[in-house]
Amino acid sequence: MLTLQHAMAAEPTPDEAARARFVSGLRSFVLNDLAADLKTAYDRRAAPAYAAQHGAAPATSDEAHDALKGDIAFATYSTLRVAAQKMVWGSVAEGVARDATRLASLADDVAHEPGALLLDPDLDVPGNVCAIDVHLMPGSYTGSENRTSGLAPGATYDRGLAVFSMGLMGANLDDIGLSMARYVRHRYPDFAPADILDLGCTVGHNSLPWKLAYPQARLTGIDAAGPCLEYASARAKLQGVDADFVQMRADALNFPDASFDLVFSSMFLHELPPAMRRNTLAEAHRVLRPGGLMLHMELPPNDQMPAFEGFYLDWDSAYNAEPFYKNYRDQDPRALCRDAGFTDDGYLQFVVPSLGIYGADAIEAGASADVGAATTGRLTDGVMWFGFGAWKR
After folding, report:
1. For 216-230, 285-299, 323-337, 371-385, which range has the lowest pLDDT when averaged over its residues?
2. H runs (alpha helix) in 59-216
3. Which stretches does DSSP call E strand in 112-255?
4. Radius of gyration in angstroms for the set of CA atoms belonging to the chain, rounded to a whole number
5. Quick check: 229 and 247 in contact, CB under 8 A?
6. Cα end-to-end distance, the chain, whole Å
7. Is 56 exposed, middle or buried (0-12, 13-18, 19+ CB in 10 A)?
8. How do residues 59-102 score in pLDDT, each as one tens digit?
9. How many Å apart are CA 51 and CA 99, to the nearest integer?
């Protein structure tokens, strides 16, 4: 579904909607048909040629990448995937700009509704948020290096992600949050968090499911990008969800020790430089109460995947303006938790079937069985979400 099911979404014209459908269809062709061709080229040409030269088949993501670089299938796939990625943002930019006045009016109309919005104009917004066009999105999460307010970056990200994900992330891009929350509720029925924190929440799309899962909890989403939070706050209120959104850095949380029972993030850690990532996880440990849970939906680590599948995910690090992506995936999630202060006996990781694709029964069944990570993180016909974290003992 490419049309978001909430009132804060920019409304496309028929021509813009047709353009978005075309771009989404192109992405589907690249990520399914061309990806299959790429795997065939790897198996039949690239890997055997690499083995003949080096005495062994590619064993790592880097080696699979090296094997494929000169292959025409790789050049075709990469060229079209980059072009399609840029077209994602181009397909929504005009609509967001045209609808800006209406969106601002909607935000003003619900400003008095429950849910705080706390912005910090003096915050030192890190360069990975404002100085890199992450995902090739012009202006990234802030619109420019100096921008501190405005709804456009959040609206662009929201509409663009709907086109990008080809309908596989749910009607309101909340499938990760819905799937993870259902999994946690089923696997840990006695866990009842009173205070929930979402790190790097962007537009709050995966924050709100936690409030739906635990209605009595207080939900707080934080992000360094003020414009995304302005949009997130109005987006939540127009869906009738009471949530606080606060501008701050995840690696320097302005909360007292032991403030939360659940600290969550989705597709966030791989966008952080290594030092920020370490500090973010340490901060998560600090603000958790004893018995609390830190949980991250992320990309699975390279050492748990075959070489080609690892390369397939790491492609974004080299070609999609996500420079810290591969560095994250080369790390061990258990070691990251240990270094942050968690103990090994509290560590957990799992794979959750997409709620929207597989349904609630599959999630509940998955809560009682181990599922491999090899196909997670890929937006194809079968979507799985990889989660890891730790309980604070």
Report:
1. 371-385
2. 61-68, 72-98, 100-109, 127-130, 152-164, 175-187, 208-213
3. 117-118, 195-199, 218-223, 244-247
4. 21
5. yes
6. 41
7. exposed
8. 999 999 999 999 999 999 999 999 999 999 999 999 999 999 99
9. 55
Length of the chain counted residue by residue: 393
Contacts of 121 (CB under 8 A, 6+ apart): 148, 226
Residue 204 backbone zone (phi > 0: left; psi -120 to 50: alpha; other: beta): left
Q: At what angle do helices 307-319 and 72-98 cross, to 10 degrees?
A: 50
Please answer whether residues 297 and 245 qualify as being in contact, where contact means their C-beta atoms are separated by less than 8 angstroms. Answer: no
Both tokens assigned to 120: 């910090």
pTM for this prediction: 0.95
Structure tokens at 148: 């501190």
Structure tokens at 53: 């030269």
Q: What is the DSSP letter of 390?
A: E
- Tokens 């990889």 correspond to what residue? 386
Under 8 Å between Cβ of 305 and 372: no
| DSSP letter, residue 222 | E
On the 0-12 / 13-18 / 19+ scale of CB atoms within 10 A, 124 is exposed
How far is residue 128's CA from residue 130's CA, in Å, rounded to a whole number?
6
Cβ neighbours for 326, distance < 8 A, ≥ 6 positions apart: 61, 302, 314, 317, 318
